[in-house]
Fold:
Amino acid sequence: MIELSSENVITLTEGARLLPRRRKGKKPHVATLYRWARRGFRGVRLETIRIGGTLCTSVEALQRFFDRLTGEDRLDSARAVGSRLRAAERELDREGI
Structure:
């Protein structure tokens, strides 16, 4: 949850400007942040707060969003490694090793 008193609140347009450039040097479009806020990405939604008629987020909320996505990637990698290990163990069992 975004805390107005302690977080650096910004508009989604300002948030898009903060993100690093992507393919061919293009910055992410503001619509990307709206999509992350509404639908999410990989099950993670960007926290927002409506101030008047403006949908806003915070620098800290962006950090939390990316931290959660990074955690999901790590979890997916761990699952993949575990799956490969189990497959290797089954193969070794079949070979009698």
Remarks:
- The beta strands are 9-11, 49-51, 54-58.
- Helices lie at 12-18, 30-38, 59-95.
- The first strand starts at residue 9 and ends at 11.
